Amino acid sequence: MSDLPRKAMTRTARLAALPLGIAGRATLGLGKRIGGRSAEAVTAELQQATADQLFKVLGELKGGAMKFGQVLSVFEAALPEEVAGPYRAALTKLQDAAPPMPAARVHAALAERMGKDWRANFRSFDDRPAAAASIGQVHKAVWQDGRTVAVKVQYPGAGEALLSDLGQLSRVAWLVGPLIPGLDIKPLISELRERVTEELDYALEAEAQQVHADEFATDPDIVVPAVVAQADQVLVTEWLDGTPLAEVISGGSQIERDRAGQLLARFLFAGPARTGLLHADPHPGNFRLLKNDGPAENWRLGVLDFGTVDRLPGGLPRPIGDSLRMALAGDAVGVLEMLRAEGFVKPTIELDPDAVLDYLRPIIEPAAVEHFHFTRAWMRAQAARIADPRSPASNLGKQLNLPPDYLLIHRVTLSTIGVLCQLGAQAPFRAEMLDWLPGFAELD
């Protein structure tokens, strides 16, 4: 791959080819069924081929296309099992890898952004990318003071690609929408588009990462690599070893899954409370489980990539904790009043308080018990309940509104729940909310 495809027409053509290719394979599949192949076998074959094509294109285009794929990957747990199988591997590939930018292009980018003598900053620099993501790739190196570092280099043309892709993806959102019940794809793409300009700014990312690194510097549970240097579209941070969360999901022990899940939930709630920032890209590629020879309670969670954050000076909004506490106490009227005050229920909409509480109870189950076991089956059940047009939950859900101030918080929460379900984690999640979620504890 010689460069990130930048021209809008080229990228649009690749994305536009997706529905045509899928339609063509569906026609081919119909012919195979007529020829005697079983519907199940042909359907499975089509699902696998569709996944391969969809995520091959997204991965090669990088930019917004790959970012979209990464966001979708955390919702994989909501897919029906008969569909999830062929899609799971293709989705997971997007979390940590993409076709790399050649070394010559990396060197040119470093010379442009750090100066022609950029190598003087390093004792050594590995030309092989350690990871490739939606707008840049990471190289392992040794800084001039001997520290092992991660060097993130933004792809040339990434900004154009991001904005172009996210505009075009909204036109083919229907391809993915039906696969994940209850997930409205177009608002997700719109929200991503609003955030891309921040993610392209490595100075903002360096600032957000260093705030976290300082806050968690002596923390026994959470590790955030410190920023070493930043120059234009290059970001150098301390290197972080550990087991990628994607590997824990694919083959980790239950002990590993439970500890990773507990720490992920802790970071979701503690991060905003302690830093005033919400890490807004919680896909598995951004987390590492740092194990040692001691007991699991001493293992830590490493957190990477602060390109997208939500600024919450007071931590997560107190109405979230207040309404959650009232819902668990059965205060249906109080919950509805809180939702209306925060803009989740528009003034012209009349709802039955008890129906609202019935809608929420299954969703807030993890906050109701001391230990909760997140599973793919549980997430599929929630998605199906909300998506089924015959369900009271579906009809009520359509009358609710998502205020702009809560849009990113909502996506991050759903994404984190998706990762917890992929992990199959069982842990005391309620305790994390009691410790860190404003308004949830009665004496808070």
TrEMBL record:
It comes from the Bacteria. The keyword Membrane does not apply. GO terms for molecular function: ATP binding; kinase activity. Residues 93-338 form the ABC1 atypical kinase-like domain. The keyword Nucleotide-binding applies. Keywords: ATP-binding, Kinase, Nucleotide-binding, Transferase. Belongs to the protein kinase superfamily. ADCK protein kinase family. This is AarF/ABC1/UbiB kinase family protein. It comes from Kitasatospora acidiphila.
